[in-house]
Amino acid sequence: MAGAEIKTVNTAARIDLASTVGVLVGPACILFGQWLEGGEVSSLLQKSAALIVLGATVGACMLSFSPRYLFAAVRDLRKVISEDAPNPYDLIERIVAYASLMRREGPLALQRHARLETYGMLATGLNLVAASVAPEAMDVIMERAFHERIEHNNAGAEVFEAAGGYLPTFGILGAVLGLIHTMSMLSDPSKIGGGIATAFVATVYGVGLANLVAYPVARKIRARARSEKQLDKIVVTGIKALRDGMNAVALRQLLSEGLTPVSHTSPTDSAEAAESGKSVA
Predict the structure, then answer these.
(1) What is the mean pLDDT of the chain?
(2) How open is the CA angle 182-184-189, to the nearest 5 degrees?
(3) Alpha carbon distance 212, 26 (integer Å)
(4) What whole-number distance in Å separates Cα of residue 170 and Cα of residue 61?
(5) Which pLDDT does position 58 carry in this prediction?
(6) What pLDDT score was predicted for residue 229?
(7) Measured on CA atoms in the order 254, 256, 259, 260, is the torsion positive or negative?
(8) Which residues, including other chains, have CB under 8 Å from residue 127's CB and lie 6 or more apart?
(9) Any idea where the domains of the chain sit in the sequence?
(10) Among the four 39, 186, 206, 237, which has the fewest Cβ within 10 Å?
């Protein structure tokens, strides 16, 4: 059994259908409503308004956040329409399998598996156990990594929440600038109506982007971060129990406590993960 393998599931990104449809439905309904009211859809396409609102918001975010947070916001956009975190039950089965392997062959047997482990937090924990790091030091390292990942996973949401606050304000600013420009044309009354209408497009951009994009994206990133926090908590608890030699049955019960069943993987995938745990038990 020295060559026993623990199956590490490479989790493919799963498309979030609700987000994919939602990002299209909101703008489409606004444009359709504009058309139903007899307005020209093209009247909402104003380059100057978009430049004022978007450019000023990006500038304000750059002033508010460090490059690390800004890069995180760009990185986390993928979390809006897809999710690649593993199923918590698959993760638990892998930890149980690693615990069985360690009880049978010792901590050094985990080194090879740590290199193949795809979930970074778990790979870190396995390396610490394999290196026989002192329990106190291991606890400190794992807890610090846990809190750093919480901050890392929520960084993008911070930026989008701030952008949601800036956008309506710059929309109003754009409208005021448009009205100032319109007031300069009072000598030609035929242009005043069109000028006022164009000025308020900036407000539409600001309010619309804040409530259709910035705030919903921030909330979705927060939701993904909560899921990853749950997974990381499972790993931290599992690594401590694995290090202390807890048996497979007790470890599985400990890590499964309080979990809500999910359907990210098929029954076949879950069965295969469970089988892989039994193969090294």
Answers:
(1) 82
(2) 65
(3) 7
(4) 12
(5) 96
(6) 92
(7) negative
(8) 110, 111, 114
(9) 16-24+46-279
(10) 186
3-class secondary structure, 257: coil
Contact assessment for residue 276 and residue 263, using Cβ atoms and an 8 Å cutoff = no
Which DSSP string corresponds to 62-99? HHHS-HHHHHHHHHTTHHHHEE-PPPHHHHHHHHHHHH
CA gap 241, 234 in Å, rounded: 11
* Res 7: pLDDT: 59
Residue carrying structure tokens 């080194």: 111
Does 146 have pLDDT greater than 70?
yes
Q: Is the per-residue pLDDT at 181 higher than 50?
A: yes
d(CA 219, CA 11): 23
User: Has residue 47 got a pLDDT over 90?
Assistant: no
What is the pTM (predicted TM-score) of this model? 0.77
For tokens 């982007």, the residue is 209
- The C-alpha atoms of residue 50 and residue 132 are separated, in whole angstroms, by 57
Give the up-direction half-sphere exposure of residue 19: CA atoms within 13 A in the CB hemisphere: 20
59: tokens are: 């500038």
- CB count in 10 Å sphere of residue 1: 9
Give the pLDDT of residue 194. Answer: 66
